[in-house]
Amino acid sequence: MPRPLHATIRGGALRHNLGVARRHAAGAEIWAVVKANGYGHGLERTVRALGEADGFAMLDFQEAARLRSAGVRKPILLLEGIFQPADVPALCELDLTPVIHSAEQLAMLGAARLDRPLDVYLKINTGMNRLGLPVGDVRAAWNTLAAHPGVRSVTLMTHFADADGREGVAEQLACFERAAQGLQAARCVANSAALLRYPEARGDWVRPGIMLYGCSPFPDQDAVVLGLQPAMTLSSEIIGVQRLRRGDRVGYGFTYAAKSDTTLGVVACGYGDGYPRHAPTGTPVLVAGQRATTVGRVSMDLLCVDLTAVPAARVGTPVTLWGDGLSADEVAAHAGTVSYQLLCGLAPRVPVVEAP
Prior knowledge:
The chain has 11 helices and 18 strands.
């Protein structure tokens, strides 16, 4: 018999969340961000479910080639652009839209002969200080791209550092508008957080990511309140039961000692499956649909849960690690991380079940 752990991916939830994004976009076109193997949901599977998006955004040529081979003809945006001059022919071959974020990339594109016209995104560093051209270099870069015979259009973009936090987007958005002043170009600035919270940042194209997968970009706002549905549910079963006396200890390092007589369930899931090893005692799970908590240190293949609140649980009782009924956001918060890491970290050994 196969190990009982599996992930269920619901295409209906992905489509629903795209609909939420569409409503907030209010006419702007949507790049569905599907990098990191569709945030762990499976690239081709995710793109099929998000087929009503206007285009797909990702990182590398290999994933873009997979989509073209699968018959996807919609625009594909390469968020980190090209890495070497030899990449330029692939832009034409696969009909990709590169992000140009450095003088080096600008030179690579400028020196190349393009076999077909390309749409290009020009990224501006408005304060995040990660990728993007300095504000003072934008106009010269714009003029270079506009003069290139192989460049069909140029869209201006930036990325917000704190759209989900206290600072918001006002300062970066003002910087972006100063850099773009007088340039006749489409704008693309809003990620999930900006799309949901700052309508002034919609622009012409938006780039929703985490919200498409049913998680909140905000630490202080639940995904359900935002109208989002979890697309991934990680499920397993209890495969063993241990009855502890007060003072008995649990797992590697004996990091937990029972405060009273306690029944533990041993669950077939561990950090080898993508569950966070650093999740502490008290991290929530659902056992037969009822809330319970982990105890002790997560091991590679197993974790333990306190069954005090679920006395009828036994071997074979279902367990939800995150997803339907238990947001990955909540699990991640207990583990001191973000839901992005949980979703993207799903291990290849975990079987995936597709659901409507």
